[in-house]
Design a protein that fits this description.
The chain has 12 helices and 8 strands. By secondary structure, it is α/β, with parallel strands linked by helices. The chain has a single domain, classed as Aldolase class I (TIM Barrel, Alpha-Beta Barrel), CATH 3.20.20. The structure holds 1-deoxy-D-xylulose-5-phosphate and the ligand NCC(=O)COP(=O)(O)O. Ligand LD2JLWAY binds next to strand 8 and helix 10.
Length: 257
């Protein structure tokens, strides 16, 4: 549709680092992957420095900031350690995510409503340093209101539950979860928050969620890196951009070239 604003694609390169760390060496290099994603049209790079450093390491974050001319979305737990790293690094944005050492991947959204006092101090410190602050939350009214009250710039709506229902063929549950995402996106935009989404998205899911008019950015990693094993990172990033553009109605000849 004419006049629609394109949805940005943030490529999460965590699992390039997972593969690198499998042998304890330096290959494949997450920074090289970020540069390849940029060449394929990615609008930003997302990297999650976990407390246990299971994939992305401190040196990766420093090199991404220094060597990759794309906005860096630094995902982190809301701990004093990570805030200090963020203040030293000064990424384009910090996305505060919940983190439990024993989890396989991010399991839920940040409990912004339950952590207002602690988060308030940290959000203020990050914003004072000129860093945009995103909260990774479930599409729930109280969490969205808390994000706005905290002065966050962005909410990233957790699409994991919806993607799990889709993958399991649980159509009614998937439909109900997508309705939560649809309502959450509208509510967040009404609060003046920039609306992102991510977790578990594949080509079809990204196309569907990109059709929500409030969505400004999608952050996608695990599926893309998995597909890149078969078809190459350049090809899968270009295909994902085309899926997102088709969903938003902003497809151009460049997307299908
Ligand atoms: C917050 C989120 O959904 C992901 O961006 C996060 O990075 C998932 O953690 P892993 O990459 O460790 O699976
Ligand atoms: N915040 C979501 C993200 O960066 C990527 O999540 P996934 O695609 O690796 O599940």
């Amino acid at each position: 549709m004419r006049g629609e604003r394109p949805v940005r694609l943030g490529v999460n390169i965590d699992h390039v680092a997972t593969l690198r760390n499998a042998r304890g060496g330096a290959h494949p290099d997450p920074v090289r992957a970020a540069l390849a994603a940029q060449a394929a049209g990615a609008d930003g790079i997302t990297a999650h420095l976990r407390e246990d450093r299971r994939h992305i390491r401190d040196s990766d974050i420093a090199r991404l900031k220094a060597e990759v001319p794309l906005p860096l979305n630094f995902e982190m737990a809301a701990t004093d350690e990570m805030v200090a790293i963020a203040l030293r690094t000064r990424p384009h944005a910090c996305c505060l995510v919940p983190e439990r050492r024993e989890e396989r991947t991010t399991e839920g959204g940040l409990d912004a409503a339950g952590l207002l006092a602690d988060l308030g101090r940290k959000v203020a410190a990050l914003k004072a340093a000129g860093i945009r602050v995103s909260l990774f939350i479930a599409p729930e009214a109280d969490q969205i209101a808390a994000a706005a009250a905290l002065g966050a710039d962005i909410v990233e709506l957790h699409t994991g539950a919806w993607c799990e229902h889709r993958g399991a063929g649980a159509d009614a549950a998937a439909e109900a979860e997508f309705k939560r995402l649809t309502d959450g996106a509208a509510r967040a935009a009404a609060h003046g928050l920039e609306v992102h989404a991510g977790h578990g998205l594949d080509f079809a899911a990204a196309e569907k969620v990109a059709a929500l008019p409030e969505i400004v950015e999608l952050n996608i990693g695990h599926f893309l890196i998995g597909e890149a094993v078969f078809d190459g990172l350049d090809s899968v990033v270009r295909r994902m951009r085309a899926c997102i553009a088709r969903g938003r109605g902003t497809l151009t000849l460049e997307d299908v070239a």
